[in-house]
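To: structure desk
From: M.T.
Subject: fold request, one chain
Message: Could you run this one when you get a chance? Sequence is below, nothing fancy, just the single chain.
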Amino acid sequence: MGEAYLVAVKPSARRTSRAAAEWVAERGPHRRFESKRLAREWARETSPQGHTFWIQDAHPLDSGPADGYLLARRHRGHDREPPGEQASLGGC
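Reply: Done. Structure tokens follow.
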């Protein structure tokens, strides 16, 4: 298959997903996968409705043990949430 891939579950994912928060509470902030592909599949399967989870490679200067991070972002409901108004910068 591929090389083992260690994922750090970041706070954004813990706040967004009960499953991710429970994983961290029970087993710690890291999860090992047989490959990066399997980590990405888990991110898609764990992603709650209305949110996007993804795996991002760890920064090369990050001294932690993780190969990548599980991150979360809330989808913006464009149909239900129109963009905000632009404000003046006070004469600029």
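Reply (cont.): The CA atoms of residues 78 and 85 lie 14 Å apart. Let me know if you need anything else for the meeting.
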